[in-house]
Amino acid sequence: MRLPNGATNGNVQTSMQADRSRSERLPFSPTVASHEPPTAEASVLNSIRCAQRAEYRHGDRRGCLKGTRTAVLDEIEFWTRDFDKPPVYWLNGLAGTGKSTIAQTIAERIFADGRLGASFFCSRDFEDRRDLHFIFPTIAVQLARRYTEFRSIFVPLVQSDPAIVDESLYDQMKKLIIEPLEESSISTVIVIDALDEEPASAILTVLGQFVSETTRVKFFLTGRPEPRIREGFRIPLLAEATDMFVLHEVEASQVDSDIRLFFKQGFLELARRRHELDGWPTKEQLDLLCERAAGLFVYAVATVKFVDYRNKNPKKQLDRLLLLPKSTIYEGKTKFKLNTTLDSLYASILQEAFGDNDPEDDPMVRSVLSAVILAANPLSPSAIGTLLGFDTEDVLPLLSSIHSLLTLREDTNQPVRPFHKSFPDFIVDPTRCMNKRFHVSPPSHHPELLVGCLNLMNRTLEKNMCKLPDAVTNYEVPDLRERTERYIDPALQYACKSWHKHLVDEHTACTPEITSALHRFLENKLVFWVEVLSVLGAAREAIDALDLVRKRLKASPTLKLADDCFHFVTGFFEVIEESAPHIYHSALPLSPRKSMVRKLYGSHASPMARIVHGLPVSWDPAGVTMRYSCSTAAWSPCGRLIAISDGKSGAEIRDAATLKPLTVLEFPECQTQKLVFSPDSRLLMSCNKRPENFISWDLQTGVLVSAISPELRGRPPITYSACGTMFGALIHRYSDFVICTYDVHSGTHICSHPVEGTVIGDVWTHGECLRFAVVKPGSITTWEVGFTSRNAPTEIESLPLPDNSPHDLDPDSFHPTLSRLAFTHSGRIFVWDARHSKFLLNEDAPWPISIKTSFSSDGRFFICETHPSKIYLWKESPTGYILHRKLNCQTETFNLLISPNGESIFVSSFRTIQLWRTADSTISFSRKQSRDRFIVEFSPDETLAAVKRLEDDTITVLDLKSGDPLSVVDAGMQVNGQRVTGSIVVAVGRKEVVAWNLPARNHVLNTKANVNDSIQTATISCPTMLSDPYPLEFASISPDLHSVAIVEGTSPFDGYLHLHDVPTGRCLGSVPMRGEGDKRPWFTSGGREVWYITDDDEANGLAIVEDSESGVIKLEHLGPTDQPPNTPPWLSSRGYQIMDDGWILDLSGKRLLWLPLHWQSLDTQARTWSGRFLALLHGALPEAVILELEE
């Protein structure tokens, strides 16, 4: 990087003049769009989520006063024109030195020359302008509006792949900006201001990947010289391509001269508008002002604004400031120089504005100031009044009296915010704002804002506030943004998205006023609030808010209600996020029968499908379930992310509360064996096999940081250094173990240290060192070595092992920082606290030996999984670990993790991943989930359904109108199929076909019957089927009850279809079946044909034909055909469809219902259709689910 060379204004200007003719020939020649894009293209651009008012032309930003900052402005403008200069320019400086003002001026100048492509002014005050993922799409849309060539490439790209704007930062920049720029050969300048407002290193990391490809594009960046930003500019590719100018290292005389000029021009403009100001201010006054400004333009701007206040005498205003003490030790958070007087300036402005007020008005002053300072996003004066219960007519004058400290407009609907960050820092610090009348205490004023938000939501929230049509998803509403702006005012939007951010501590949550308002909110407005968050694209806030409430509240009815609401939001998060109307069409109708949410809000449900049978009683113990085959997983230290991998195609980063996919990381041709996060959760490392390497990724950007290929065996323990720039691994080389450390970014090997003994557990980071534990006879020894140290590891401590510990300890059962060891021995389970030489758990093991164990990071929880698929959760108590929960999984688990805070458990099993809550107070973890499927047959008139579990002997006949059981039949045999008519139910097993009469419809419900009550029994006479050991897979009975088709499986791919006469049991014939298709046979409505699917997905059939003369029954083969006369039972004859994402659609494509994942099944055999009715049959359900869909 090149530091400023101290060139004078004249030198820079001379250089620019000399090169002016050459620079005019540089390749800035794209076609600039002189009008709005055509309607079709404009609609595409308008559909992309962009940050609002981020461009230089928006907002209240002002450029440099003419004649000031000339040296730096000329140097930067010269850089923009000279393509021999590096493509990146970093203007850095401390707070208040004028970075944003210079960026605004540069943007204005190069826009006037037609060279500005896009600009983005970051701001921590606005949610979308502090979100990294808005930066590149916003810049791309500006480029598309600016340049016709760019737009012609960009618009088709977005049309073909709308999800591209939601990809990683790396892919966003590559696909949305770099590739279209290169293809269109555009030369332009892009301005990004205030990167210190964001984790700027993420943007710099991405920029470093492409800077060599952007020879015709220049990037002008500004930001504070924070360590992480400096680190980003040290990336080799970026460092070589960057010019740098340090504002706070410019000569003081030059800065003072600019500030003096600013004062002169500001006061001259004031004198033109006022009378009797000739010769004012004096030279002495200007000298003193410049001395106190101490190089900070923010002081100069605030001073001029304060003096130039309407209805005030400018001379007296200035005199008040100059009479203040000369120095203070503070300057916001920058501490640029010790002789600044920002604190005194702020105190004087507050005193002048409110000092003469009646002290009774002080609470209102502090409340309004707190709304400006503490709001999660800037509020307008009208919104402040709405939240706090004040008249806007009172709020605006109050704010106007300190206009010099704020960005304030006359429009009361425009947000107000501090003019500079140093003012909030001042007013919340009691050691700086020492006048208690004006001091804003966050612990005191956050509750006031919280109550205001809750009361506003309790007053105004209602169902379908945006007047959305039924059954649509949010993205299918083209004017959704306009609807939200029209129907949800800014104050209510703020309250819905940010109320929980004012719930700062347990004391706040437990006050009677807040507890009462919160309970009313959860009891009366929950689903309407969730609906608003859905249309605002902020559904994730509901999880954060309810989770925080659960943590803050003590045991109470409100906590119990919050638990239930939390289950509602997490259990239906997918559909809540995607479709606000389906909160009422799907989420509420599918909520458990005994859930509090259903009881409170069931009357607001508007189902398009009726749950006839199978609605759960309580919430599923697995709060969130997703479909994914996970072989390895890791939980981030921050607790908000989970990394998962199928071991074949890389890894996915998922939201740890919802399991929603966030980022996909591709590891080409790698078998991932282990995943590890860095301490700050910004990096992820995968340990891979074939090829054997370590791959490190930047998770904010999706950029591959490094790939290192040491000699690996197995799944070596890995840990990042505290700063995330190095990592260490325990590598198994031949018969020895070696600790190796590497540089994360370059992949360079730093040092290696041989290890003696058996290492147990992971290696871990302690301060600036790496630690590991070695097991020796009778002890565990902890060792430490610096990441860059060439010295041998040092022994830190040696702790004793119990006498009964086994020699072959499981390396995953050791908690390194607490020195706790879990093991099983002689039929008992132990947890040994080595540091205190005592057992925390010493119990008989009522299960086979555990196969997976894990501790939470704080040691509060210990978990182990045993055969057969049982999970035992133990919780720490004063006397040791006590059994807290028992969990039953559907299949054997592959991964078992506890969240860092011990509140959630991640479980992966065959094709599914799940989240379980450790602290749930509303569910039991003991419900068994069977692998068995169900059999459901509907009567021809669709008034009855016969339901049974596949390997059960009992058939339940349901009345489909009421959902109540009409009769329960104990068949006395394993039933493989059944048929029900209006008065008879027939069951078939391996040996018999049995029929029973049903009671009359007006009979008492839920009657009982058994095999002795049957009216007909026929013995099946197929000797081949009776003698074979193969299982009967399916059986289907004809609607006329005359025939039964039985499928016998001889392998997963092959089997036989046997056709029998029901009255006699006689076998009419058998045919072989081939392939993996659905082997379930079905009859036509007349019962004279039976059809089945073959391995080529074609239907084959058998016709039952009776010879008219002899009366002999024979079979005729039909097909193959792709259009059988009747629709198979697993497909809807009325055009209903179940999509892979869980939506049930009608023939027109209308979304009738969303099925939670544990209700879904990829197996077509696990569903049965009959007209409007659908039965879901897979065994992950506690019982078969029967739905009646809207016509």
Automatic annotation (TrEMBL):
Domain of life from the UniProt record: Eukaryota
Identification of the protein by name: Uncharacterized protein
Species in which this protein is naturally found: Thelephora ganbajun (Ganba fungus)
